[in-house]
Design a protein that fits this description.
Elements (H helix, E strand, L loop, with lengths): L1 H23 L20 E17 L1 H4 L3 E15 L4 E17 L6 E16 L4 E18 L1 E21 L2 E16 L5 E16 L1
Antiparallel strand pairs: 1-2, 1-8, 2-3, 3-4, 4-5, 5-6, 6-7, 7-8
Length: 211
């Protein structure tokens, strides 16, 4: 009877000892895979692309009585540079030149005024919200008009522009933007007598590649 009791006790002790030793051995299970950190989008650097849209506006000074309101499309190229600060504000500079067919007929048949091309050089200030960059912009604007009042002449107009919009990171280095600009072009001489300028509202969209 004593031997019968002793053997089970010894066997139980051996099993418990083996379990304790196994618990102390290093685990062969693979550690959990680390979760990859998703870095916020960085807007630093230069870019170039295309921009196009639609504009409409009115003539100023003598042009307001000589021509109807102007409207039409535009298409051009753009280039710029952004610098993103540690607080997520983004400062930059952007330029563009566009070809345009914004025109208004004259109050006398055969007369007309057409904005043939225009360009801007603007500063931009935005706030990076990861892949979205809302911004405001302002700076220089200039444009060439061809005015016909009995005879035709081409004039260059200095001016300024102000506006705002948003840019969106699409994929890779490509971004897209939408913006609205108000453009004021100072008066220049008409072919006969007087002067004419333009006040234009532009709605544009663009596609950029970041270098």
């Amino acid at each position: 009877m004593k031997q019968f009791v002793t053997f089970p006790v010894i066997g139980l002790g051996a099993i418990l000892s083996t379990s304790v030793l196994a618990a102390d051995l290093p685990s062969k299970k693979a550690p959990p895979s680390p979760v990859a950190a998703v870095m916020p989008y960085n807007w630093n650097g230069g870019y170039g692309g295309f921009v196009g849209g639609y504009g409409s506006g009115s003539h100023t000074k003598n042009g307001s009585t000589s021509f109807d309101d102007a409207s039409g499309g535009s298409l051009g190229v753009t280039a710029g540079y952004n610098y993103q600060m540690p607080n997520n504000y983004v400062v930059g500079i952007e330029s563009d030149i566009s070809w345009s067919n914004m025109k208004g007929d004259g109050v006398i048949s055969g007369n007309k005024s057409e904005l043939e091309s225009f360009g801007t050089l603007r500063g931009r200030l935005g706030y990076a919200m990861d892949r979205v960059l809302p911004f405001v912009t302002a700076g220089y604007a200039g444009g060439n008009t061809k005015d016909t009042v009995t005879t035709s002449s081409t004039s260059y107009h200095n001016g300024w522009t102000v506006g705002g919009g948003a840019e969106f990171a699409i994929t890779g280095n490509w971004t897209a933007k939408v913006e609205g600009l108000y453009v004021h072009l100072e008066p220049a001489s008409l072919p006969t007598t007087g002067e004419s300028g333009m006040d234009i509202g532009l709605a544009r969209a663009g596609l950029n590649y970041r270098f």
